[in-house]
Write a structure and sequence with these properties.
about 425 residues; eleven-stranded mixed sheet; homodimer; about 25% strand; alpha/beta; six-stranded parallel sheet; 14 helices
């Protein structure tokens, strides 16, 4: 163990998260000596425009020249908080090749190029840590990789997008429609002007890909993830869910089944008794089931300056400790299996369907027989709202492979008594 | 990094948790090569009676001779799951001095002799890991020590005793009295024949002492913890709590305030909206507030064979990795501060009091004036149940230093209009 030195880190990017990291490094100055045995300092900060004034940031640290950081051998840790695929990918690869350790919060990059980056880190025996890439401040990567390492993890399920959870909470507790709730989220800065990545489930998809890779020790990339967003969820669906003693959440779901990995993002009806059901507003939570530990859940702030910086700092302190103890790379890529990812057609789920149908005798019998002929069992049928010529039928199926449901839907498509199917939402449970 | 060797561990004790660890080591045999880079095996098991047959356990591993393990230099990890203070303390100290790493689930020992053990581990640069000592399978020690290392943690609050949580859940949801709920807990094996350590809060007290030490980087021992159990909680108190939109939970509470550390175990009214409120039955959860991360919570099984073994295995795999990378001792004792622990008298809380009083005019004014004269502000006053000559007054105070409350109680003691004060329970909040 090497004491009394200074460990130098460089920040790539000093936006929201980078600014938070900069603050925490200053705030924890005294603590580092005790926690790591050395001082820790931010020696350089890479920005696009080094001339721009940034309040609270020592302008002497700013540089717009990556080579200046890359070639500085005194910098042992690169903290990548710039986001996006390029140039972040190139910088991280170059940093690792130069023998630096990397801490990143970049979920987009990891969910697409994780293998390439992890391979390089392993080759160089350096740390590549990314606690902040999933669920912001919530400790989840280290618990999955280390604390639960004695388990076969069979399920990871998370509310990992605060924007959509905020929108769904507004819809649930204030009866708002999606568009109104989205507007409020945008006004409050929770949702971006183009909210696609959040509301279509892409952001959650990247996070669940990363968690699935770690939990099941097998590489899952974003392109493996089936995603479905919340734009079609209506206040009426939420009301029906409530009648079924459920709430609707946007969930990232990953399961290790005998025939492969299932990995999806979609809205889901989940019992109010499930611990995830009471995770509201912009909070995140990840629920994990392991064969030994049983059910566990990790809850907290999934985004924001300081929560995300908290996760980055945990990693920075850990890698600094590894530098001191000459054991960087001690926890390398854990994807040592090659488990196939199942097609969504082959995944079993329970479904909630809200169908607008002709208000004629025999319509329910017709629907039931189509489901029956396609092997779709019905657990519940409600026929609650009836207009003059239309009825609304709500069914909850037993777990069924998705292709059987789709076969039924194709037949409904050609039936004049079925006017419209405004909602098809998965339901948690066996 | 040293690959392709076998790391040998010895189990001290093979009861519930030890049996679970033995099972998991077998179950995960194939995984170790990938996770650690070596094989991992249980080479010896220390028991009192080596001749006793133990189904499922290889009898050749059993020994009743500690020296056989201590002197065996091929054994690099000692897993202490025997419990109790002695001989566990001596064995752990001897193991560390012999250069072995130690994983323990022994909260009693750590809460009393933690410093001595940690000092020895530090001296020898060996690992002393104890994830299983607090909240069973829930990852909490590693998150506190590593993931949240960039925070000043100000509050840790946990439901860390499954027995009392089960009893309180029965009382809350089925209207049972304490004695009946305890009986059921005993019949189900959740509570021991002598339930004192659980119901009086001693078990929770040991766990909160350990968590406080880590969270605040300052040694807190069990003797610093003020404990109050749940034996006096009645179904009526739970009903009143419900009216106040609260539930009653037995909480381990640790706060870092400007004037010192507060560390207590007591029943508490907590808002139904708080994430801890819905942690029911034998589940545990630990809620942590850090200056950067904000609120986080960790939820899961706090006891049981495999959940606890899961935590032990996480530690075993971690120390095995450190052995491979020659970096044992990389995370040593983190109690580098010396913050005073406050006396309970000086700790501010809100209180719920249920008082049986004479049903005479002016009694409420009398009570209010005693509180007022002693600096105790009242947030709520209810006078709900009235018998012939008795009234029941329930008050909720504003936060007040405990000694002011006790001053009031001393005066009530001498007042004939106060018949009895059957419940004094703390209330969460500012």
């Amino acid at each position: 163990m090497e004491k009394n030195k200074v460990i130098k880190a460089a920040l790539l990017g000093v936006g929201t998260v980078g600014g938070g990291v900069y603050k925490l490094v200053k705030r924890q100055k005294e603590e580092f000596r005790h926690k790591i045995g050395t001082d820790l300092e931010i020696a350089k900060i890479l920005v696009r425009d080094a001339a721009k004034e940034r309040p609270g940031i020592d302008s002497e640290l700013l540089t717009d020249n990556w080579q200046e950081i890359l070639k500085d051998d005194s910098i042992e840790i690169v903290i990548e908080v710039m986001g996006g695929i390029e140039p972040a990918r190139t910088y991280i690869l170059e940093a690792l090749r130069a023998g630096k350790n990397v801490v990143t919060a970049n979920k987009d990059l990891l969910a697409e190029h994780g293998k390439e980056l992890m391979d390089e880190a392993k080759e160089m025996d350096r740390d590549l840590l990314f606690e902040a890439a999933v669920a912001g401040g919530i400790p989840i990567i280290r618990p999955l990789k280390q604390c639960l390492a004695g388990n076969y993890i069979t399920e990871v399920m998370g509310i990992v997008n605060g924007t959509t959870n905020f929108i769904l909470s507004k819809m649930t507790y204030e009866g708002m429609d999606f568009e109104d709730a989205l507007k409020i989220a945008q006004d409050l800065g929770y949702a971006e002007a183009d909210p696609t990545a959040d509301v279509e489930g892409y952001d959650a998809g990247r996070k669940i890909a990363i968690m699935a890779s770690i939990a099941f020790n097998s590489r899952v990339t974003f392109s493996d993830v089936y995603t479905e967003g919340i734009t079609k969820i209506s206040a009426l669906d939420i009301e029906y869910a409530d009648n079924l003693d459920c709430v609707i959440k946007l969930l990232g779901v990953a399961r290790h089944k005998e025939d492969g990995i299932e990995v999806l993002v979609h809205p889901m009806l989940i019992s109010k008794k499930h611990p995830l059901a009471s995770v509201d507003d912009s909070f995140n939570a990840v629920y994990v089931h392991g064969d030994a530990v049983g059910d566990t859940m990790f809850y907290g702030r999934g985004a924001g300056e300081l929560p995300t910086a908290s996760a980055v700092m945990g990693d920075v302190i850990d890698t600094a400790r590894n530098i001191v103890y000459h054991c960087t790379g001690r926890i390398a890529c854990s994807c040592y299996k090659d488990i196939p990812v199942k097609k969504v057609d082959d995944i079993k789920s329970k479904f909630f369907l809200r169908m607008v149908v002709s208000n004629t005798p025999g319509v329910l019998a017709n629907i039931a027989s189509v489901f029956g002929n396609n092997g779709v069992g019905l657990e519940r049928v409600l026929q609650q709202k009836v207009e003059k010529e239309k009825a609304e039928i709500v069914v909850v199926t037993y777990p069924v492979e998705e292709r059987h449901l789709r076969d039924s839907l194709r037949i409904f498509d050609g039936m004049s008594i079925i006017k419209n199917i405004p909602a098809i939402i998965r339901v948690y449970g066996e």
